[in-house]
Amino acid sequence: MALRGSATSGSTTAITDEQHTSFGVAGELIPFARMPDLSKTVTVKDRLDTSLIEGDDYTLTKAGIVVLGSGGIDDQGVKVSYTPLAANMVQALIESGKEFVLFMEGLNDAQDGKAFNIRVHRVKFSPVQNLDFISDDFASIPLELDVLADTSITGTGLSTFMQIDLAQ
Question: Which residues contact 148 (CB under 8 A, 6 or more apart)?
Answer without folding.
Answer: 99, 121, 122, 123, 124, 161
